[in-house]
Amino acid sequence: IDIVPFVDVSYLVIEYRIEGATELSGHVSDSLRTYLFPGTHTLTVILWIDLFESRTRTWTFTVADGFNSNNILVEAINDTISSDMILDISFFDISYNLSYPDSIFFTDGLYNVNYSYPLISGDTYQQTLAFDTIEPYLEVISPTLGFEGLSCSLNVESDAAEVLFKFSSETTIYHYTKPQTIIFVSGGEHSIIFILTDTYGNTRTINYNFIVNKVSTTQELSFYITIGEDLNPIENLSISISSIYNTSTIDLITDNNGRINFTMLKGSYHIIFEYSSENYDFTLNTGDGLNQEIWLNEASTIIEVRDDFANSTITGLYCIIRDKYGNRILSSYTDGNGRIYTSNLDAGAYSFFFIGSGDGYAVVSQEIYLSDNYILFNIPSKQRRIVFEFQYDNGTQIYNLPVTISTLNDGSIVTNTGLSSQVTLFLTYGFVDISITLKNGSVINLRRIFEPGMNKITIILQSDSGDQWSKIPFKSISGFAFLVSLSFEYVDYYLQGSLLFTYTLAYAEVLLILLVVIVNMNSIMQNLYSESKRESAIVKMIGGTNLHAMTAIFSRIGLVALIASIIGYGFGNLVLVILSNLNQTVFFGHTFVPRGNWLIFGLNIVLTIFIAIITTLIIARKSKGEKIVHSRRN
Hints:
- The structure is a single chain.
- By secondary structure, the chain is an alpha+beta fold.
- It has seven domains: 2-63, no CATH class; 72-131, no CATH class; 138-212, Sandwich (Immunoglobulin-like); 216-295, Carboxypeptidase-like, regulatory domain (Immunoglobulin-like, Sandwich); 299-379, Immunoglobulins (Immunoglobulin-like, Sandwich), CATH 2.60.40; 384-470, Carboxypeptidase-like, regulatory domain (Immunoglobulin-like); 479-624, no CATH class.
- It is built from five helices and 43 strands.
- The protein has a four-stranded antiparallel beta sheet with strand order 3-2-5-6, with no helix packed on it. It has a four-stranded antiparallel beta sheet with strand order 9-8-11-12, with no helix packed on it. The protein has a four-stranded antiparallel beta sheet with strand order 16-15-18-19, with no helix packed on it.
């Protein structure tokens, strides 16, 4: 491009800035020529009149991208000489120093060039180069996409220098020079393959499909409008009818009864008309009947919604119906049969918004124009709760197992089985793909079906016989063994805070936790002991019995013990959740139960209250032997 400023005032300097496919900036004096890549550009020119005043103008323009040929070799310009070349294109004021056998790109068009060979002689040659990489075009005039009979005329238009064609069912290739008659042996769908070559050597292959011996039918359409309680035919209405099988458009006008009759090939077709400043464009099908009625208002419409996977009706689904302008026409819920009944929809195109379907909502477009419309929508079901339970084949649950669950409508959900050995999701009905990552890094891919009536899907994996310690479930044991088992489980429960990454760290964490617990409990118990002892002395001073003293002491220690039990239980669960999410559930070859146990909680309360009772008796007993000094003021 050339930037040539025309200025009628004195100025200091002119700046320019080009942004877009090419980024340039600088100053302009009398004129400036610069080269741009194809694409959209913005040119900003700033005229500085003085240091404090400037004027700015901006233009936006597009440099078109031509069709580049392939690499044009130097010797292609003159194939009689193989040497370095100086190529000059005077129209564009561009020169190239080309080393043999370099190449250069040209966009399509005609070029007058001057070239010379500095290594051979100083002679300059002139030549016109023509480049064209646009593929040849083809327009099939006949046969049309569908026609009656087995005989047709093959007539095409093309800018190709050579047009070859063959039938897909044959191997023979024919030259096309002029229209010719083709006779088919049988009806149905046929295909002609055209091979085009233009004068520049560009080739193109086109596959043209059409139907032979297609049957025509006579259709009758009636147009009505309801005014008040009366149904009135629409007369003198101009209708345009077109079909992909018919090359020409049929233009008709309704009679006094609002009817038109026409003959066309069987299949779908369009009717286009205007009524009361409203444009209508409907797609009809000859298979829906030879006589069809078009109601422009107050037609009866039944909308039925079914799940696209299970084909079950979707009840209680909220539907909003909007016209082509976006206006809300109707909103309602589907009934027990998954249906909505209405007679308030005029003829036209509507969008149906189903709230709560699939991943939030579904939008479906539908035309309404018949006197009685039955519309069936197959959409994703509402998301429903489904539980995926993971187990080993020995009945042991699998905790913190990385899982990816995917469905067509809900996408991929990355999660893990957590503390419950389960994954609870809300999904639509359909196929569910489950990807499971095992401890050794291997991945198992499974597919299950989620359909109506299901609320749980159980996944059973094969257990590893070499790692049975991590899969032995806790089982109830009777008698004394039950107490021993429960005691160890109780210890296990509070040792879960030490489930760390290595055994070495595990030992250190166990000692640290025990040390912190002992120090804190010692401090608390010392304070409780001092306070309870003082309170026992006061009770005795005012004439209280040992029972009164024990009651006062236990009311304090017992309450603290109960609160400590609840806090300890909650803290243990919290630590367990954190460590379980880090997959730290194995300690000394034993898998801890990653969930709270009410039996353990009850045992914890009994144990702490028992300690509180023992402490109460010790304090009460020591307070018995202490002297009580009475003082009296006169």
